[in-house]
Design goal:
- The relative contact order is 0.08.
- The N and C termini lie far apart (146 Å).
- The protein has helices at residues 84-87, 139-305, 310-405, 463-475, 494-505; strands spanning 23-26, 31-32, 38-44, 55-60, 69-74, 88-93, 104-110, 116-119, 123-125, 479-481, 488-490.
- By secondary structure, it is an alpha+beta fold.
- Strand 7 and strand 8 form a beta hairpin.
- It is rod-shaped and about 230 Å long.
- The strands form three sheets. Strands 2, 4, 5, 7, 8 and 9 form a six-stranded mixed beta sheet that branches. Strands 1-3-6 form a three-stranded antiparallel beta sheet. Strands 10-11 form a two-stranded antiparallel ribbon.
Length: 506
């Protein structure tokens, strides 16, 4: 036998806590002859798995703990536990290490935890009996043998009781093993179900992570778009304020020009009255010239009829010629004054028309630009409100998914941009197109994406048709068009429009 290098693992476990039915010892003799090697045969049950530090020891009958072994041998681990040959094992004890007395011993299988897993029936180490030998004993030896027999009977009765207890424990262990087999099958079923559930949970978590990443990307896009939209709205508001100031200045200039036009109109009326007076005076002069011509004709007739001296005739004719020349000079002076006044009036009319046209053009351009800017501002404001509503929906959906996954929003590596967390353009969250709300795409809001008239709610398939509709139906409807020169005037300048039309009739 090889030299024992280390002691086997033992314990102070009592017999009541041992399981003797897991290893069964076979072909155990009633006695073994001293001086020879003995072989121990044992069988491993199907629910027992041997380990490297298991050992088989020879114990004297009546032992209490595994520390009371006489000698031991390490067990050999089988290569294949499922084969039938692996269940039948053996170990050989050398004669040198066997007991030398004739006490009762038994084999015990002890695992590496120091717990007994099986025990054999008792046996002795004694020589074979010979019938032809006469044994002579004394009375003392007989009494000692009787006492020994009584002790052996008592030990035998204890062993029988122990065997009954072991058999009962074995039956209980068999029932427990059957229960354990059922529980083992249920455990395997639960493990397979648990594995499937874990796979499903993993797939669902992967799907949620993908959706969360998509929502984060959409939230980033929406945040950047909101920031750009807010900057654009601020710019438009600043432009609107500048244009309102310019409009106020132009309105003030228009009022000044209107006052100037009224003053020019008064002057024009005065000139028109003066021109009327001049026309009346010219008519009077023409009437006077006509009368003078009639008088001249009458004088000529009288000259022919009269037979007065020649010198008198010459004097009358000279007086008449002088008077005619004087009248012609007055007529020429009146015509020159009339032409001068008429040219001055035409020049003033032309200047008035130019001033009115320039003022109307400026007012119309400013009104048109103001209406277009207001239309763009309202459109962008509605787009901003729509995007903020979509952001709210995406944020609520993101929070729902995070709470469903058991995550915390503050523990995520992504945080909303600082530019989208404060100020008048505060962004409520996401980003998250939300697949549950039908938001699949996020596009930059601009005028080209509007296919619905904000004034009359008419839908269009083309943006150009929408713009033409807005210009014709809602912008031009607020203007008065001149039927002669195709100029347009705002609806609140009807008096200027009528004056303009009247200028064409002068």
């Amino acid at each position: 036998m090889e030299e024992i290098i280390e002691d086997p693992p033992t314990s102070a476990v009592l017999l009541d806590h041992c399981h003797f039915a897991q290893v069964i010892f076979n072909s155990v003799e009633k006695f073994y002859v001293p001086g020879g090697d003995i072989t121990c045969y044992y069988t491993l049950t199907k629910h027992f798995i041997p380990r490297r530090k298991d050992w088989i020891g020879i114990f004297r009958v009546g032992w209490k703990t595994t520390r009371e072994y006489y000698t031991f041998m390490w067990v050999t681990l089988p290569t294949d536990l499922n084969s039938e040959s692996a269940k039948q094992q053996e170990v050989q004890f050398k004669a040198y290490y066997l007991p030398k007395d004739d006490e009762y011993y038994q084999f015990c299988y002890v695992d590496q935890d120091g717990v007994v897993r099986g025990a054999s029936v008792p046996f002795q180490f004694r020589p074979e009996s010979e019938d032809d030998i006469l044994v002579v004993t004394t009375q003392g030896e007989v009494e000692e043998i009787d006492q020994r027999n009584k002790e052996l009977c008592k030990e035998n009765q204890e062993l029988k009781d122990s065997c009954v207890s072991l058999q009962k424990q074995n039956s209980d262990m068999q029932a427990e093993l059957q229960k354990m087999q059922g529980l083992q099958e249920e455990l395997e079923t639960l493990k397979s179900i648990n594995k499937k559930l874990e796979q499903k949970v993993k797939e669902q978590e992967d799907c949620w992570e993908l959706e969360l990443l998509q929502l984060k990307e959409q939230n980033q896009k929406m945040s950047s778009e909101n920031e750009k939209m807010g900057i654009r709205i601020d710019q438009l508001q600043a432009q609107l304020l500048i244009q309102e100031k310019e409009m106020e200045k132009l309105i003030q200039g228009d009022q000044d020009k209107t006052k100037q036009l009224e003053h020019l109109k008064k002057e024009n009326d005065e000139l028109f009255l003066s021109l009327t007076d001049q026309k009346k005076h010219q008519k009077k002069l023409e009437q006077t010239v006509k009368e003078m011509k009639q008088k001249e004709t009458a004088a000529t007739r009288k000259q022919q009829e009269l037979t007065e001296p020649r010198n008198k005739k010459t004097t009358v004719e000279e007086q008449l010629v002088q008077e005619v020349e004087h009248l012609k000079a007055k007529v020429e002076a009146g015509k020159a004054c009339f032409l001068e006044k008429y040219k001055e009036c035409q020049r003033l009319h032309k200047q008035i028309r130019q001033l009115r046209a320039a003022a109307l053009d400026q007012n119309f351009d400013l009104s048109k630009r103001l209406s277009e800017n207001e239309f763009i501002f309202k459109t962008l404001q509605r787009e901003k409100e729509k995007i903020e509503g979509e952001n709210d929906l995406l944020k609520r959906e993101n929070s729902r998914l995070l709470s469903y996954m058991g995550l915390d929003v503050d523990s995520l590596p992504y945080q909303a941009p600082a530019s989208a967390q404060g100020g008048a353009r505060q962004n409520p969250g996401l980003v998250y197109g939300n697949p549950y709300c039908g938001i699949q795409e996020s596009s930059s809001p601009n005028l080209a994406s509007i296919t619905k008239c904000p004034t009359c709610n008419v839908h269009f398939t083309d943006d150009m048709n929408k713009e033409d509709h807005t210009l014709e139906q809602h912008v031009q409807a607020l203007c008065l068009d001149c039927p002669i020169c195709d100029k347009s005037f705002p609806i609140d300048q009807r008096q200027i429009f009528e004056d303009h039309v009247l200028c064409h009739s002068l």
